[in-house]
Design goal:
70% of the residues lie in helices and 0% in strands. It has 132 residues and is mostly helical. The chain folds into two domains: 80 residues; 51 residues, no CATH class. The longest helix is centred in the middle third of the chain and has 34 residues. The chain is flat.
């Protein structure tokens, strides 16, 4: 493996690890809010404390989403994943099924999930993988 591709993969794995760490932080924050699962009377100061906790969770969630976007871009621009024709068919069928169910349940509030990477085919990468 050449050093450029190795560098891209290292960056990919580091970003994935960062997303996992952020997700863990969000779980910890959410666990501190378990009191809200039960009907309780809250004082104004308790309410402010919970808003602060929600803000922390929201900020970490936004950071996780931005990191995930960068991760996807890293995968796409550096050809780290190329799907076989069989994978494309399987994944597309799954996405279509999930999108249909999501629309059925949520109606106009649902958003169609698309994977542009499914439509990308890098023949040079495929040829280099076949020769190995």
């Amino acid at each position: 493996m050449d050093s450029t591709k190795r560098g891209h993969l290292v960056q990919h794995y580091n970003m994935t690890r960062e997303i996992n760490e952020i997700q863990y932080e969000i779980y910890i924050i959410e666990s501190s809010m378990q009191t809200l699962f039960h009907p309780v009377e809250m004082t104004p100061s308790d309410r402010l404390r919970y808003y602060d906790v929600l803000t922390q969770a929201d900020a970490r969630s936004a950071k996780m989403e931005l990191t995930a976007e960068q991760l996807i871009e890293n995968i796409e621009t550096n050809n780290l994943v190329v799907f076989s024709d069989e994978d494309r068919i399987t994944i597309s069928a799954y996405l279509n099924e999930r999108n249909s169910k999501r629309t059925e349940i949520y109606g106009d509030c649902s958003q169609t999930v698309e994977l542009p990477l499914l439509n990308k085919k890098d023949d040079t990468l495929l040829k280099s993988n076949e020769s190995k």
